[in-house]
Every structure is written in C-alpha cells, then in structure tokens.
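User: I'm writing a tutorial on reading structure tokens. Could you give me a worked example: one chain, its sequence, then its tokens, then a sentence or two explaining what the tokens reveal?
Assistant: Sure. Here is the example chain.
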Amino acid sequence: MKIQFLLFQEEDDEPDQTLLFDLPGVPQVGDGVTISRPGQEGYSNFNVRRIQWDLDYPAESPAHRADETVIGSASAVTVECVYVIGSYSSEEHKKTVLGL
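And here are its predicted structure tokens:
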C-alpha cells in the first residue's frame, strides 16, 4: 500500500518534507517512525499525529439491497508526523528538531 508521509515541525502548518513509502500497513496515531537514508549516520525520528484516509465511492448513492453491492476504495492514505529526537537520531535531524 502506498502511503504518503507529511513531516512537520511541531507548530508548523506546512510540512517540511513529503515522502512516499510502500508499506504493508498504516502506522497509527502515537506510533514512532524511524527513517534511514543512504550515507546518513543515525536516523530521522517522528511521531504519528494524524491519519487521513481519502476514499472513492463509485456510485452516486449508497446501495441498499444485497444484490446492489458497491465497493469503494482508498485513493490515498496520508500520515502526518512530527519531528522527535530518538536514541540514534542523526546530528542533522537533531539540528532540525532543535531549530539550529
């Protein structure tokens, strides 16, 4: 499942980064997320603050009879995260979190 991550500083309204991942499931609010990158010493750490599900329903109105079953689908899943410092956060990540 493709999941879009929006990475926010705690008080910001606009994300610093947008990343797309192919994951087997969706992190839940309060979960910790650790991202590693090639050539980076340490990690980038985040906490999930909100999940947004965008759904498509292919019919104009809900079906009410069993023989009229219509199934919608997820068009997008967005996970909003805020920066945190973890045990093995990279120096670059720590500077970003601390605003240095």
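What the tokens reveal: The mean pLDDT is 91. The helical segments are 91-98.
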